[in-house]
Design brief:
The complex is a heterodimer. By secondary structure, chain A is of the alpha/beta class. Chain A folds into three domains: 3-235, P-loop containing nucleotide triphosphate hydrolases (Rossmann fold, 3-Layer(aba) Sandwich), CATH 3.40.50; 252-330 and 415-492, 3-Layer(aba) Sandwich (Rossmann fold), CATH 3.40.50; 343-401, no CATH class. Helix content of chain A is 34%, strand content 26%. In chain A, helix 15 runs parallel beside helix 16 (429-444). The longest helix of chain A is centred in the middle third of the chain and has 16 residues, at 171-186. The mean pLDDT of chain A is 88. Chain B is 72% helix and 1% strand. Chain B contains 13 helices and two strands, in the order ααααβαααααβαααα. Mean pLDDT of chain B is 87; it is low at 294-307. Classes of the chains: A alpha/beta, B mainly alpha. Chains A and B meet through helix 2 of A and helix 7 and helix 8 of B.
Chain lengths: 498, 307
Amino acid sequence: MQLQMDNITKKYGEFSANRGISLSLKAGEVHAIVGENGAGKTTLMRILYGMEQPTSGAIRLNGREVSFTSPLDAIRHGIGMVHQHFMLFPSFTVAENIVIGNEPGKSGRFDRKHAIQIVEELCGQYGMKVDPRAVAGSSPPGVQQRVEILKVLYQGAEIIILDEPTGVLTPLEVQELLQAIKHLSKQGKSFILISHKLNEVLEVADRITVLRDGMVTGTVKKGETDARQLSLLMVGRDLEELKKKPSIPGEKVLEVSGVTLRGTKGKPILENIYLDVRAGEVVGIAGISGNGQSELLQVVSGLIRSDKGNIRISGTDVTGMSPKAIRERGLTHIPEDRYVWGANREATVLDTGIMAHHRRLQQGGLLKQKELKALVSQWVSKFSIKTGSLETRTQYLSGGNLQKLIVARELEQGAPFLIAAEPTRGVDIGAMETIHGELLKRRDGGTGILLVSSELTEILKLSDRILVMYEGQIAGELSAAEATEEQLGLLMAGGSIQ
Amino acid sequence: MEQLFDLALLNTTLRVLTPILLAALGGALCSRAGLFNVGLEGFMLLGAFSAIAGNYYFHNIFLAILFAILVVSVFSLIFAYLSINLRANVIVVGIAMNALAAGLTTFSLRTLFDVKGAFYDKEMVGLPKWNIPMVEDIPVLGPIISGHTPIVYLAFVIAGAMWYYFYRTKNGFRFLAAGENPLAASSIGIRVRRYQYGAVLANGVLCALAGAQLSLGQLTMFTEGMTAGRGFIALVATMLGQSGPLGVTASSLLFGFMEAVSIRFQGLALPTHFTQMLPYVVTIAAMFFFKDKSFVKDAQKQSSSSR
């Protein structure tokens, strides 16, 4: 065994994040760790990477017991970590980002030419392509991830920890990453892959360890398991099949006609978009992120103004109105990025929860504290949002729990039209099930939903009609019944299916 | 008007831009380390005062400057401890440092020298003026470049050295990294705090030199609030130059030139208060014209990352 973690326990006061977890890793093996948010995956990896010390238990590398007091220790012992949120320097070049910490050059000088050469050699050696001269911050997420992996390889890592590596990647980039993992493991590098995307795990992992509530609920070998068994181990119960009734479309709740938006250099971001959403249906917008979906939602919700075109919500022309006015006409919005648009990190769970509801539950400018509190605590129990109290700051909530809070808040507005942008990004299976169930319940109750997601499975699961966006245009429309992943993938890449 | 532009004007430019350039370079170091320092004015004022005080007590120009550096370094440590260790908001700390320096110098002026407003003593020695052999004989260039205090030449050497440090050395590369993404930097073992302390202390030294040039460079005297907003102009030069040594030097040149022009205008029977306005008007105008440039975004980023 290259790596052996024995009986790792980590306590924070009374709370145990890890309870007697044992884990082993062979050279050249890909070992996936799956589990819901808060199952203890991240804590375990922070211990392995030297960012935390275990309360009890031991780590052995090639048979010798080691203890790490900082990430630097772990790096020296050949353990590298690619964090979920990239640890890059956006204004630096790719080469600079890879060699940092161990730069080439003599007597204090930094030899950048040599750095570029080193990176080119690394690319060749491991079969991963990056442009060493490109600026890291303006490279696509897939490239940034390769930079991160090359960085840990350059640091001499034999064991590479990947924490939720596919969260920000497009389907194509995910495939490239999985290929790279397979390729590197053939060269003897071992991987610990933390994920909750079971299909990816099943594709690439040799062994899978499932955690729940800080304990191992099972370690299974590839080929001896399936997604259903894994989710049973993760959630502790069978997931209910999502039953979708046929939709009964009603009145148009959203009509977008001829919307055009130009960027700073006159380059079109949105071009002549026509779409409508009826009451009681889910319209899904698929597309690789950055093809105008975000801007379309911002135009519809009044955050930016389009150069041309009209927006009507429930029959009223809302073009050019303020977001507040548009919401009053019947729109709610689960925003794409929960930290940028959906919540205030510094505010409490209560404050984040009452946003927009505060306009309703008030009298003469004073908030009706009691009713608002009752409302938010009701959501907390209904959506099983894990939070210390209503006074906990939002930034201490895990991503999934915050997302559930935002979804609850927006659904409770009870508006006839809902925008759901990436409603389950970074959310675990259990929460995903809840959110999907709630969205469909609203649909059946007559809400029109515009769903934007980069997850094709989500689009296919929830939508009644699917539109594909490519370079600011609607590249095609499919009915959910006949759409396949292949067709959508083709349209998303700019192809045609005729 | 033929008196307006001549070689002496450019000579004056070099003299008056030096305090701005030094402080702006210090400001650039701080902002690159992620600590946007609005206390430049206070640091510079304290430097000017302690250079005079050192001069009075030691009768030695070298010791006077050393004393100024020592005093401002202690002052810098307070800034560093508050903003780095205690994680106070750097803008607030910077403003507090300005207020503290203004009060401290006025108070010390009265208690140490028993004077109000300004202090001057015949025994004090000013900074020497270097007439560089060979260079001073070059037509046009000679009269501009030659005949300045050593600090003037030093300022330009420091600007060049800083460029080399940032873009050619490993240590400078890590310094920039620590400022750009402290979390990522510490994840690969870069000691971010050490670089931040280094930046604040170096800024202290630069501001002490800037103050010394103000109080010892021309008249060898100290007057209350004699920095007169130069620290804030330096702050604008830092932002306008996007915290890069070359950009900062260029924008300091602009502000130095405007100050020199304003001094020249005073000889043309224009109201003093009007002409003195000139550098500040240009500062505001510069902010206006460059509003869409990325340095504004940098500044915003800096102020939002200022905790």
